[in-house]
Structures are given as C-alpha cells and as structure tokens.
Amino acid sequence: MSGNHEISPQHCAKKGLSIHKRYKKLLYALFTSIFSILSIIFIIYFLLHPSKPEFSLKEVDIYQLNLFTHPQLVNSSIQFTLLSNNPNQKVGIYYDKLVVYASYKKQQITDYTSLEPFYQDHDESNLLTASVTGNGVPVTTSFGHEVLRDTTAGKVVLNIKVNGWLRWKVRSWVSGKYRLNVNCVAIMPLGPSIPSGPLSSRQGTQCSTTM
C-alpha cells in the first residue's frame, strides 16, 4: 500500500482561504486598536478643549532706531517684556523653537532672536524678556516718510512678534506640534526731537494669538 497522501486542489483552496481569513482578522484587530486609541485621544482633546495661550506686552524700550539712506538701512536696538499665560485648568503647554523680532510699518527692523524652550503648567504665567537688534537691515524707500509722519503725530507704533510651536500636555499624553504666532502692538510717545534716553512704554497691551 502506498503511504503517499495526495492533496486535492479543493484542499489547497480551503487552506489558502483559511490563511487569508486569518490575516484579515489580524488587520481588522490592528485597525480597530489604532482607531480606538485615536478616538480616545480626540475625545480627551475635545472634552478638555484647550484654549490658546494669552500674551500681553508689559514693557518696551527702544534704545536705537536710526535710518540711513542710499541705500535705505535701519539700525535698531529694542528690549521688551512679555507676560505669557496658560488659561487652561487641566492642560499644560510646551513651547518649542520660539523666535522674536520687531517690525515697524509691516517691515522687519531687527534680526530674529531665539527664546529658550519652556514648559508652562496649567493656569501658570511666565515673564519673557528679550533684546532684539538689527544692524543694517534693509527697508523700503517709504520707510523714512513713515518715520517722519509718526514723529509729526507724536507716536511710534511698533509690533513685537513671536513665532514658534507649541504642544499640549494632558497628564502623560503630549500632542503633536501646533504653529503659534503672536503679535503685540506697542504705541511709543515720540516728540519732534528724539530724547537722549530710550523711548519707553510701560502700558500693558493685550496681544493677538493665532494658531
């Protein structure tokens, strides 16, 4: 008697179908697990509904703002203090890769200055002080006319801007990165003649925050 066992095509088909069903079940279980984890994350996120951080400008000092013609260049030196507040009761914030600079009449007049990354716990506030400078920053030909117009009006409207990224933290869970843009407006008094000391403003100004 022969000891060989022949496998019929029908048997092979059944075996292949069984393997296919097994892989299908594994993929289904994997996708179900991923979907469940993502659902939990989104539910936590929307239930907590984190609010944007709040920034306000506490103090600005202009130590230098000189315009040179042919070509049009600006030298500037500005120091400022920002108050950063996390209004959330259960969500912390990681601030990453923050850079600050000053602009005047929609023209950047200083180089970028980096701020150290930091973590802000829920319902916590931090003071951020930075100095920004610009040496030979090119500006448009209309810049000088704008400065003259503001000098006549007796004020300088300066923008302090912060760009970077933030991450939300809920207990041990940390979100991905979200773009952060902050724009603060400082109105500085300026008379017909620039004083020997720095131009200063210590009026608290609320800043706009976009994400």
Automatic annotation (TrEMBL):
It is found in: Membrane. One of its GO terms (biological process) is defense response to other organism. GO terms for cellular component: plasma membrane; plasmodesma. Pfam families: LEA_2 (PF03168). Keywords: Membrane, Transmembrane, Transmembrane helix. It is a single-pass membrane protein. This is Uncharacterized protein.
